[in-house]
Amino acid sequence: MKFSLLVLGSPQSSPAVASALKFAQASLASGHELFRVFFFHDAVATGNALTVAPQDQTNIPRAWQEFGARHNIDMVLCISSALRRGVVDQREAERYSLAAANTHADFELSGLGQWVEAMMLSDRIVTFGA
Amino acid sequence: MKTFLLISRHSPYGSSYAGEALDIALSAAAFDIQVSVLFMDDGVYQLTRDQQVAPGAAIKHLAAPLGALPLYDIQDLWVERESLDCRQIRAETLAQPAKLIASAKIADFTNRFDRVLTI
After folding, report:
1. B52: which residues sit within 8 A by CB, 6+ positions away?
2. Which residues of A touch B (CB under 8 A)?
3. Cβ separation of B117 and A6 shorter than 8 Å?
4. Any CB–CB contact under 8 A between B2 and chain A?
5. What is the pLDDT of residue A42?
6. What single-letter DSSP state applies at residue A31?
7. Mutate: best of B16, B24, B26, B116, partner A, most A CBs <10 A
8. Is the pLDDT assigned to residue A17 strictly greater than 80?
């Protein structure tokens, strides 16, 4: 089955992003396909490459980044959610003359159309946190 | 044409979820998808009249995206009857015309749609 995930909660203060990761891992392990993972609202912080977690806690953004890279997952950060929260790639940093970019290279900043497309082309959509 | 039901359950200004959910509905309509919206729980407050947002507030007024729904041909609006009742909101006072649906009918109702998303 082809799944797409909509992730809404913050990786630091809600279980949504960690639950989505567990679901993604389990679905691939069961032979399903992940068409796209769309990070919306506070979940865009998952694409921030500059987070640091205490030593005894899992760094959830990093765990997603490693999982996505290993399995070549299509991971999209909603561009308007991301800009508002200071998650920017090089292109947006230049466009808005910001001091730095912080988005992990495996995430793409793009619009809601990416989620609408994913909804229509997947067999199932699953939402995490709202 | 595919059909899509957005179930909007968040209050209009306690978070940005309500506005963002409407953004998804508008985006879907722009993709030639037939969109319906069901308001339930605190989401019914989105439809109340005379909403005011302080000038310069960090949250957007929902009048713009709600007003845009008919322009995007999103006319099929629903509101859960029990959500209105327990908040003492009368359907005829809502700012947008929406059809009432009883909560016991919602499970069957969602089966009519190709996709359902709850925010």
Report:
1. none
2. 6, 8, 40-41, 81, 111-113, 115-117, 119-120, 125, 127, 130
3. yes
4. yes
5. 97
6. T
7. B24
8. yes
- Whole-angstrom CA distances from B64 to A18, A25, A58 are 34, 39, 41
Query: CA of B24: which chain A residue's CA is closest?
Result: A112
Asked if A16 is an active-site residue, the reply is no
d(CA B21, CA A129): 13
ipTM: 0.90
Quote the tokens at residue A73.
């997952």
Instruction: Calculate mean pLDDT across residues B73-94.
Output: 96
Among B17, B20, B31, select the one facing A116 at the smallest CB separation.
B31
Q: A76 is written with which tokens?
A: 């999209």
The arithmetic mean of pLDDT across residues B95-113, rounded, is: 96
DSSP tag of A123: S
Rounded to two decimals, the pTM is 0.94
pLDDT tens digit sequence for B31-79: 989 999 999 999 999 999 999 988 888 888 998 999 999 999 999 999 9
DSSP string, chain B: --EEEEEE-S-SSSSSHHHHHHHHHHHHHHTT-EEEEEE-GGGGGGG-SS----TT-SS--THHHHHHHHHTT--EEEEEHHHHHHTT--GGG-SS--EEE-GGGHHHHHTTSSEEEE-
Any idea how long chain A is?
130
Q: Please tell me which residue of chain B has the smallest CA distance to A113.
A: B27
- For residues A40 and A106, what is the distance between their CA atoms, to the nearest angstrom? 16
Task: Give the model's pLDDT for residue B56.
Answer: 85
